[in-house]
């Protein structure tokens, strides 16, 4: 963590504009107040980039954007749908207001929030190395995005407790095969879906959810998807892994 803080300060010092890339499904959990405060102290402009916006409903996106815009200009993008990157490029050029040289843009964020994919989207071609496996960007990279924009691409860091497996599972930092409690992570996913987009959960698994708690919903999904043991009982572990996999593959819309 100490070395990460040194790296962050160095990127902030060198950059003309900073991007804080957050997961649109977890905008608050994937923001870093310490990094934001450091940027403000340095007097540098920054943009909050909500990545993976294709996994969130338009209504939720607009509501979150309105709230986060009170802190900094906020742009939502989807590298998968190639959406929002032109707007992001315009905001970078606008905020930097530099005419006589290239603009250095620092890219900061947690693992698996899509930093490298955002850079590729703005560059318009495969410039930064990307991977769905967290920690793929091993060191700081300088990436030419054209039109006088150069990115400083940085490795992610896990700022929350390394033992918080539920958040690691929901952010896709650990896949289902590496989770000690996939059922617990699945229950958290169900709780979030029921609170924010129950209709999408019902439609995806072809179930009707009334007033059941998250475990009863898991059992309901288990029966509907035929995740059963020999005696007809629901195989909780199997259905839990299935739900986690569906979530991490972007099949469930919040």
Summarize the structure in words:
Strands 3-2-1-4-6-5 form a six-stranded mixed β-sheet, with helices on both faces. The protein is built from ten helices and six strands. With 254 residues, it is an alpha/beta fold. Helix content is 43%, strand content 13%.
Please give the structural blueprint.
Elements: H1 2-14, E1 17-23, H2 33-42, E2 46-51, H3 58-68, E3 74-76, H4 85-96, E4 103-109, H5 115-123, E5 141-144, E6 149-153, H6 165-171, H7 182-196, H8 198-205, H9 214-224, H10 236-248
Parallel strand pairs: 1-2, 1-4, 2-3, 4-6
Antiparallel strand pairs: 5-6
Helix pairs in contact: 1-2, 6-7, 7-8, 7-9, 7-10, 9-10
Strand order of the largest sheet: 3-2-1-4-6-5
Biggest β-sheet, characterized? 6 strands, mixed
What structural class should be given to the helix and strand makeup? alpha/beta
Number of helices: 10
Shape: elongated
Helix percentage range? 40-55%
Number of strands: 6
Radius of gyration of CA atoms, rounded to a whole number: 20 Å
Q: What attributes does this structure have?
A:
about 250 residues, alpha/beta, six-stranded mixed beta sheet, about 15% strand, elongated
How would you summarize this macromolecular structure in one to three sentences?
With 254 residues, the chain is of the alpha/beta class.
């Amino acid at each position: 963590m100490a070395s990460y803080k040194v790296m962050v300060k160095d990127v902030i010092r060198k950059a003309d504009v900073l991007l804080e890339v957050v997961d649109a499904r977890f905008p608050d959990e994937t923001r870093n107040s310490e990094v934001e405060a450091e940027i403000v102290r340095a007097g540098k402009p920054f943009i909050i980039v909500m990545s993976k916006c294709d996994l969130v409903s338009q209504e939720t996106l607009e509501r979150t954007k309105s709230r986060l815009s009170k802190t900094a200009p906020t742009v939502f993008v989807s590298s998968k749908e190639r959406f929002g990157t032109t707007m992001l490029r315009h905001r970078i050029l606008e905020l930097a207001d530099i005419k006589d040289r290239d603009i250095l843009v620092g890219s900061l964020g947690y693992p698996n929030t899509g930093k490298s994919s955002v850079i590729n989207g703005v560059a318009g071609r495969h410039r930064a190395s990307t991977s769905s496996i967290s920690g793929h960007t091993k060191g700081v990279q300088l990436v030419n995005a054209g039109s006088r924009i150069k990115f400083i691409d940085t490795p992610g860091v896990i700022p929350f407790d390394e033992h918080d497996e539920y958040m690691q599972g929901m952010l896709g930092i650990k896949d289902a095969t590496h989770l000690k409690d996939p059922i617990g992570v699945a229950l958290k996913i169900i709780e979030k879906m029921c609170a924010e987009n129950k209709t999408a959960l019902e439609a995806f698994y072809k179930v009707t959810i009334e007033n059941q708690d998250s475990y009863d919903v898991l059992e309901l999904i288990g029966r509907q998807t035929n995740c059963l043991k020999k005696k007809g009982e629901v195989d909780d572990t199997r259905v839990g892994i299935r739900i986690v996999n569906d979530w991490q593959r972007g099949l469930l819309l919040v």
